[in-house]
Automatic annotation (TrEMBL):
KW rRNA processing (keyword) present: no
Stated name of the protein: Lipoyl synthase
Pfam families, per the entry: LIAS_N, Radical_SAM
Positions contributing to [4Fe-4S] cluster 2 binding: 62, 66, 69
Organism lineage string: Bacteria, Bacillati, Candidatus Sysuimicrobiota, Candidatus Sysuimicrobiia, Candidatus Sysuimicrobiales
Name of the gene encoding the protein in the UniProt record: lipA
Entry EC number(s): 2.8.1.8
Species this chain originates from: Candidatus Segetimicrobium genomatis
Length: 288
């Protein structure tokens, strides 16, 4: 479908409900950022009403300027070392069973913020031991030591999004590298821990179906366990345009293709984002 008009299946209700309002209060009380808010996720009402949220650590200013992302970019001015404690406190107050922690890119830091991820994981284990922990990490510029720092804290799921197909990667994911992202997932899977690996893609940027399938095969070749596929929605006129809308049946086909390739779990749909129903994804893939 062309991108002239947003189809009905992409329309969502405005966020509301008691759980949503309570989570807003907890986040603001703890002075925390969420990717749900910063990236203008269309699922915020659904997920927050289900008492699930994705914490955004290392501040809310990214050192990269990807063509699809609404998060502010520039040079961060500080690092809040108390952030991991507040994330753990908020997760405990919310009574979460599955926590997702992600971050902006922090290329200004020697380890890319890996130590903050590790500390957040360990504090979550202390404060909420019954909770599974998923981290959605940047590529750390390919630094294996930074990845090892995160893995040593033993998350249940190590997520790094590939985002798009190789042909579009340079234009869409500025500062990233397709091969580097695959190598990160390969190294994570080669580790001795029992964590699952996960990645996500957007469609609607001008890729072909064959290119999507080839990227899915690349992810399986490095042992990726969980895959998410969703429709790209441009944050505004200064971002990459939407080339086309995929219909629900096309997403269902991608799910069937992914399961046939051997992914443990595939979440594929117009409104799917990396952390959409992440708790159910974790259960479906056998985390913990």
């Amino acid at each position: 479908m062309s991108a002239a008009r947003r189809p009905e299946w992409l329309k969502v209700r405005l966020p509301s409900g008691p759980n949503f309002r309570e989570l807003v209060g907890i986040m603001h009380t703890q002075a925390l950022h969420t990717v749900c808010e910063e990236a203008r996720c269309p699922n915020i009402g659904d997920c927050w009403e289900r008492r699930t949220a994705t914490f955004l650590i290392l501040g809310n200013v990214c050192t990269r300027h990807c063509a699809y992302c609404a998060i502010a970019h520039g040079l961060p001015t500080e690092l809040d070392v108390r952030e991991p404690e507040r994330v753990a406190e908020a997760a405990s107050a919310m009574g979460l069973r599955h926590v997702v922690v992600t971050s902006v890119d922090r290329d200004d830091l020697a380890d890319g913020g890996a130590a903050m991820f590790a500390r957040t994981i360990r504090l979550l284990r202390e404060r909420r031991p019954q909770c599974s922990v998923e981290v959605l990490i940047p590529d750390f510029k390919g630094d294996p030591a930074a990845l090892r720092t995160v893995l040593d804290a033993a998350p249940d799921i190590l997520n790094h999004n590939i985002e798009t197909v190789p042909r579009l990667f340079r234009a869409v994911r500025r500062g990233g590298n397709y091969r580097r992202s695959l190598d990160l997932l390969a190294r994570a899977k080669a580790g001795e821990g029992r964590w699952l690996t996960k990645s996500g893609m957007m469609v609607g940027l001008g890729e072909t179906r064959d290119e999507v399938l080839e990227t899915m095969r690349d992810l399986r070749s490095v042992g990726c366990d969980i895959l998410t596929i969703g429709q790209y929605l441009s944050p505004g006129k200064d971002y990459a345009p939407i080339a086309r809308y995929y219909d629900p049946e096309e997403f269902a086909e991608f799910k069937r293709d992914g399961l046939a390739m051997g992914f443990r779990h595939v979440e594929s749909g117009p409104l799917v984002r990396s952390s959409y129903h992440a708790d159910e994804q974790a259960v479906g893939a056998g985390a913990r």
